[in-house]
Specification:
Blueprint lengths: L10 E4 L5 H12 L3 E6 L2 H15 L4 E5 L5 H14 L5 E4 L17 H23 L3 E6 L23 H22 L5 E6 L16 H10 L6 H4 L1 H8 L10 E3 L9 E3 L9 H17 L3
Parallel strand pairs: 1-2, 1-4, 2-3, 4-5, 5-6, 6-7
Antiparallel strand pairs: 7-8
Bound molecules: NADP nicotinamide-adenine-dinucleotide phosphate.
The site of NADP nicotinamide-adenine-dinucleotide phosphate has 28 residues, from helix 1.
Length: 298
């Protein structure tokens, strides 16, 4: 699968595909023949995006399904229906993500940024793993961010219960979780034909940071930065590259960056702060994530 290769029939899911880089990645992947499912958490926004993606890609082989990554029930319902309808999955793009000004909580009571940017995609990926394995060669793409460099991850307080909540720090931490998740997935999936990589789209002009949950100086910073950001089509290139480039066949556990902007969309770089992206921390995050999800099953 080179950048211009036909992706005919390849079955793909792009979460948060009703906006921004996810939507533009869906346009490109569908335009090359992939059968793309975008997910949205709002029916009207999802329907409107589906119409745009079909128009812009020239493909009718695109569908929209509802999925709220801040709800385990929604994730389980999505997967149950997906597995009933579909017999394969070639690429899962964990793209949906948000930055929040206040400490909100998910349906299960987890801090929202950690819950919806990491725990939800973690559960979704685990529930789809058997099908991805059976569809190998297959790929998992976690849309992380350069912001992972500022991530710390306080393992004794993943839920922000004993600290004053700081939205930007919670976001950075969640993006570091996306990188660590890909690292541990790659380790666990070695030899299965399923690869897992994280990528950074670059600083992109999207709906990011403009939701009603983002306020104050965070929102102001996003507005002021807008003229200096790249367009969403350009920001989607690293996602498309990670999902489809032939040169990445068999490549796993990498962080594919778009920084500096002059770099190729899939430039392979080491994540910043190797001590924060160690195999040991990746394994620990996996175990903690499993434990937290299991704690809500009782
Ligand atoms: N823009 C940048 O400069 C930049 C830089 C680095 C990394 N990223 C990453 O790129 C990814 C896509 O962001 P974007 O820039 O394209 O922003 P965007 O236009 O705001 O798109 C984000 C998508 O995620 C969805 N989403 C948010 N919370 C969700 C939840 N709980 N459940 C399901 N879907 C949810 C949004 O749905 P709604 O439309 O319903 O809100 C939207 O479809 C994110 O992971 C972000 O962290 C962006």
């Amino acid at each position: 699968m080179s950048e211009s290769t036909d992706l005919a029939g390849r079955r793909m899911i792009v979460t948060g595909g009703n906006s921004g880089v996810g939507e533009q990645a869906a346009v490109v992947l569908a335009g090359r023949g992939a059968r793309v499912t975008i997910t949205a958490r709002n029916q009207a926004r999802g329907d409107a995006a589906l119409e745009r993606i079909r128009r812009d890609s020239g493909s009718d082989d695109v569908e929209m399904r509802l999925l709220d990554l801040a709800s385990f029930d929604s994730i389980r319902a999505f997967v149950e229906k997906w597995l009933a309808d579909e017999d394969r999955l070639d690429v899962l793009v964990n793209n949906a993500g948000a930055i929040l000004s206040e400490r909100l909580t998910t349906a299960e009571g987890f801090e929202m940024t950690f819950g919806s940017n990491h725990l939800g995609p973690f559960l979704l990926t685990n529930l789809l793993l058997d099908q991805l394995r059976a569809s190998a060669p297959a790929r998992i793409v976690n849309v992380a961010s350069l912001a992972h460099r500022g991530g710390r991850i306080n393992f004794s307080d993943l839920n922000w219960e004993s600290r004053r909540y700081r939205g930007p720090q919670a976001y950075n931490d969640s993006k570091l979780c996306n990188v660590l998740h890909a690292v541990e997935l790659a380790r666990r999936l070695e030899g299965t034909g399923v690869t897992a990589n994280a990528c950074h789209p670059g600083p992109v002009r999207t709906g990011f940071g403009s939701a009603e949950d983002t306020r104050g100086y965070q929102r102001a910073a996003m507005v002021l930065a807008r003229p200096f950001l790249i367009g969403p089509r350009s920001g989607a290139r690293p996602l498309v590259h990670a999902a489809a480039a032939a040169e990445l066949e068999g490549v796993s556990g990498r962080y594919l960056s778009r920084w500096p902007l002059s770099a190729a969309p899939g430039a392979r770089v080491k994540p910043h702060r190797p001590s924060h992206v160690s195999a040991e921390r990746a394994r620990r995050l996996w175990e903690e994530s499993e434990r937290l999800i299991a704690s809500r099953n009782r």
